[in-house]
């Protein structure tokens, strides 16, 4: 049975329109008008227990709004959501025990106090007995390599340490479902890797379900076999990362090392040339013509080496977001 079930979910935000100037302010006060922003539109998906799913979309696509509905912070305008069999917006205590939301740009730890104090507050909120608190604290701080950092004020932690401490605070009650909104935002490469490793370990150890948004594709490729792609509020793809490339990157990149120079006028017969550097040529070749094109290249050109790659996922997603072309 799905641990997250989303059916025809929509969210419309009414936004007041205000013209500048005194007249605009008076009008705004006495005759307020609204326009509607459709942030999420008729989205449906199901996630099974233990899955790690990446939630992708350009800025403003509707990811955070969806996460807020899944965690019960806002009401849906339409549709149904069930998380661990609860309706999130009812915010029942038992539901809150089962989930956690971590937002990279927000923090729950108190700035001037050591993280340990905030953790104790969380333990009290979630009714975690002292013995279990100590066990979890030990286990999670070891997994996050944070042991020595919990007794110093949060403001004195590095960004990466702070993010790890935020994760510790979010996981102290051992939630079954973890919603992560940009958990590696602003972290350096090493800290990003540490957070990723931790999430992978946490997922494996506790069979936790994780829904993750990130603008760093490395997070998604390292952690998620499955991705959801949202565009202007609508879900346009739900499947594997490889499938995403197949659907949205119709060409593969063929890199050929030539043993002697070949004129460009001849090379153009084998595919779209992406770059020529010395005797190395990179082509874009459509997936359906790939095998015949490679056979032709090998038979007709002086090839010393040849490799075939998918274009980097960042490039594919970036192009997709930039052009808004989603229906090929
Ligand atoms: N409280 C709100 N009131 C009105 N409009 C909102 C509100 N929150 C979000 N929006 C709008 O809804 C749309 C979706 O926003 P959302 O924050 O869900 O996008 P996102 O995919 O998380 O983007 P990002 O990657 O930039 O965080 C945007 O057009 C945004 O301006």
Automatic annotation (TrEMBL):
Record's keyword annotation contains ATP-binding: yes
Domain ABC transporter: 4-257
MF (Gene Ontology): ATP binding; ATP hydrolysis activity
Entries under Pfam families matching the protein: ABC_tran (PF00005)
Keywords: ATP-binding, Nucleotide-binding, Transport
InterPro entries attached to this UniProt entry: AAA+_ATPase, ABC_transporter-like_ATP-bd, ABC_transporter-like_CS, ABC_transporter_ATP-binding, P-loop_NTPase
SUPFAM superfamilies per the UniProt record, alphabetical: P-loop containing nucleoside triphosphate hydrolases
Protein name: ABC transporter related
UniProt source species: Hyella patelloides LEGE 07179
């Amino acid at each position: 049975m799905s641990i997250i079930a989303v059916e025809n979910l929509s969210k419309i935000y009414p936004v007041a329109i205000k013209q500048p100037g005194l007249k605009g302010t008076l009008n705004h006060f006495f005759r307020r008008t609204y326009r509607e922003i459709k942030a999420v539109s008729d989205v449906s998906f199901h996630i099974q227990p233990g899955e790690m799913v990446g939630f992708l979309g350009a800025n403003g696509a509707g990811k955070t709004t969806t996460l807020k509905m899944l965690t019960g912070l806002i009401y849906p305008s339409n549709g149904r959501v069930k998380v661990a069999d609860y309706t999130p917006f009812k915010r029942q205590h038992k539901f809150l025990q089962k989930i956690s939301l971590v937002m990279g740009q927000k923090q729950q730890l108190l700035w001037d106090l050591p993280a340990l104090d905030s953790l104790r507050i969380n333990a009290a909120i979630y009714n975690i007995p002292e013995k279990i608190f100590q066990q979890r604290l030990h286990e999670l701080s070891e997994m996050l390599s944070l042991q020595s950092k919990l007794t110093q004020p949060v403001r004195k932690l590095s960004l990466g340490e702070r993010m790890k401490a935020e994760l510790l605070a979010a996981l102290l009650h051992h939630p079954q479902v973890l919603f992560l909104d940009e958990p590696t935002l602003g972290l350096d490469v090493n800290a990003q890797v540490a957070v990723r490793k931790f999430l992978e370990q946490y997922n494996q150890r506790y069979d936790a379900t994780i829904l993750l948004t990130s603008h760093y594709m490395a997070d998604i490729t390292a952690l998620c076999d499955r991705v959801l792609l949202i565009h202007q509020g609508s879900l346009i793809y739900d499947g594997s990362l490889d499938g995403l490339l197949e659907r949205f990157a119709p060409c593969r990149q063929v890199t050929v090392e030539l043993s002697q120079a070949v004129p460009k006028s001849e090379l153009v017969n084998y595919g779209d040339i992406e770059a020529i550097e010395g005797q190395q040529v990179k082509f874009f070749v459509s997936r359906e013509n790939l095998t015949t094109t490679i056979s032709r290249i090998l038979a007709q050109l002086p090839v010393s080496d040849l490799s075939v790659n998918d274009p980097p996922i960042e490039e594919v997603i970036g192009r997709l977001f930039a052009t808004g072309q989603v229906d090929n």
